[in-house]
Amino acid sequence: MTEKVNKVILAYSGGLDTSVIVKWLIETYGCEVICFAADVGQKEELTGLKEKAINTGATKIYIDDLREEFARDFVFPALRANAIYEGTYLLGTSLARPLIAKRQVEIARAEGADAVSHGATGKGNDQVRFELTYMALDPHIRIIAAWKDPNWKFDSRDSMIDYAEKHGIPIPLTKAKPYSSDRNLLHISHEGGILEDPWAEPPEDVFVLTASPEKAPDKPAYVEIDFEKGTPVALDGVAMSPATLMDKINALAGANGVGRVDMVENRFVGMKSRGVYETPGGTVLWAAHRAVESITMDREVMLMRDSLIPKYAQLAYNGFWYAPEREVLQRFIDETQQNVTGTARMKLYKGNCIVAGRKSPHSLYSEDFATFEKDSVYNQMDATGFIRLNALRLRIKALLNL
């Protein structure tokens, strides 16, 4: 017998899965369903969402603008860490899920709901990101994960499409074009359909945020990005809020074909999956941040921070945003950013993101020391003893071998 549920807060996107889940929750649990859609930068995807949710059976829907919080408290902290998963992925979906789940728990408390629900499958990463956050923030909340629920009767997207068509539920994809996309201020991801074949090149009609590099402008675009303590604060000298800055840099980089990624990644659950990502603004910000760091960070501090990038990225990717180890790591990383203030000038051209200049009031770079011309501050003879001392263990090993 199905355990009684009175009221559930559903993380709702209006996509195939959550559109079907609204109806399924009502049929299965006889409960009130309140939908929650987080505006983290989906743009037109939010259009008509309220009417759709209510028409499908929800009693209410929250559509909360979380764009500034997303950029300020999730994207920019990860940027300060230069977080990148498996050397390629800038964590667009990974960073949005804990914010969505956090707000979902807050709404559940405000509404007196006894359960939360999501539409992530039992094969993917999002189920972990949602549920780890639920448990970290409210250990008593009941979780209804539809794809893992014993009452779930669907075994494929085709069967869900059939159900949606039978019940008159409008959905944003078809059997002919079954791509699954997730968009926010940092990126848009594409999965499913032909993209499940890692040998197949993504069709051009998949891409949304970026122009094809072949069709990008023939003249390069330049942009100057100001950072304060590792956080981007202005473009071309104009101060902007975090979300506004992300919007502006996304548009500029996307128009110049910057930010396309096609990768096969290792999911937390153990399988490999192919994802196609567009991260135009994030790609530029990541490279610009690196450029400012290159003249402001101490060598050994940078080496220590860089050694932790894979761990930070893994924690974010695997859903441990609210774990104590990520929070401790963030405090260390933010300390390394105290002098990362300055400007990077970036050149964007046909898919390329090139550092064209960098400057900082805290620069550790000195022409007096670095020059190949005559100088009076560095005695080159000092390098002889430096090298001999560093070679000592190598010479001893060679002598023993003789």
Binned strand content: 15-25%
Instruction: Encode the helix/strand succession as letters.
Output: EHEHEHHEHEHEEEEEHEEHHHHEEHH
Which runs of at least 5 residues are low in confidence (pLDDT < 50)?
none
Q: Count the strands?
A: 14
| CA-CA gap between termini | 79 Å
CATH class of the largest domain reads Alpha Beta
pLDDT averaged over residues:
94
Helix segment tally:
13
Helix content: 40-55%
Q: What is the multimeric organization of the chains shown?
A: single chain
CATH architecture of the largest domain: Alpha-Beta Complex
Question: Biggest β-sheet, characterized?
Answer: 5 strands, parallel
How many structural domains can be distinguished in the coordinates?
A: 2
Q: From the helix content, strand content and strand pairing, which structural class follows?
A: alpha/beta
